[in-house]
Amino acid sequence: MNKNTKIFLAGHNGMVGHAFHRRLIDLNYKKIITANRNKVDLTNQNNVNKFISEKKPDLVIICAARVGGINANNSYPMEFIYENMMIAFNIIKASFDNNIKKLLFLGSSCIYPKDSKQPIEETSLLSGYLENTNEAYALAKISGIKFCKYISKQYGYDYRSVMPTNLYGKNDNFHLSNSHVIPGLIHRMYLAKINKKTSFKIWGTGKPTREFMHVQDLVDASLKILKISNKKWRKLSGEENFLNIGVGTQISIMNLAKKIKKYINFHGNLEFDISMPDGMMKKGLSNKKFKQINYKIKYDLDTGLQEVCNWFIKNYNKNNSILRK
Known about the structure:
Blueprint: E1 7-10, H1 15-26, E2 32-33, H2 45-55, E3 59-62, H3 70-75, H4 77-97, E4 102-106, H5 135-155, E5 158-164, E6 166-168, H6 181-194, E7 199-203, E8 209-210, E9 212-214, H7 215-227, H8 230-237, E10 242-245, E11 251-252, H9 253-264, E12 269-273, E13 282-283, H10 301-318
Parallel strand pairs: 1-2, 1-3, 3-4, 4-5, 5-10, 6-9, 7-12, 8-13
Antiparallel strand pairs: 8-11
Helix pairs in contact: 1-7, 2-4, 4-5, 6-9, 9-10
């Protein structure tokens, strides 16, 4: 991987893809290939095959996915499993068919069983039942991980997967009902503030703990992983052929909400709706293997949250284009 490597970045308009795109440009990579949805339908196998055969990239990075929080995953499981399965399989298979030897697939920490021993190690995959609320998304991501593993093992290609913990950052999806926890809390709490509400309701008990990583740390860590040799990667990732990426610490949803309340400058009370699901009570990733690449986390949670809250307020007041579905 060098400055002249031709890179197809799938999903460049999403939070993760946008951060990858920005970083690659900043690092002076000269041949970055992107495609909007109106140009290439990633759920259409023929479209994807045609695009990749024409562009002939040296490296493929798959950030594209349909994503959302508990409500979105619970409400649209058919769409989540179908779209994510098609996106992953179409891009990976087209890359293989066009003799592209190097690929990075981004998974999700939701791939692990709901009762996994904490912190969750890579060997926990498929060791138990998945959390019901995100089972469809998890199954699609697991399939993509395994597809990369089988191609690498059977044909000697270098198809790697990384499992990031919960991500947040600028350009996230701040949709009121379909977003993840941090952007959802930021948007709804900001509306409560500007509408002078005296209280703010949050799903669940507030007791579950989660691990959060700034998207820029994921991007920089992933680029470092892409640069290590295939031999070192195989030794590090082992039989699983994927690697957790996380910060190694967790925070309760209650304390997370308190931090966002501070940075949004909301003065009302926080209330918890215990009739709504919590999801997994704990979900932190083991970073034992990840530490071996010697990547130093750049963003602590307070610095990252303050940045994202400020970015949201600034952009919300300009226009509502950031509030995509």
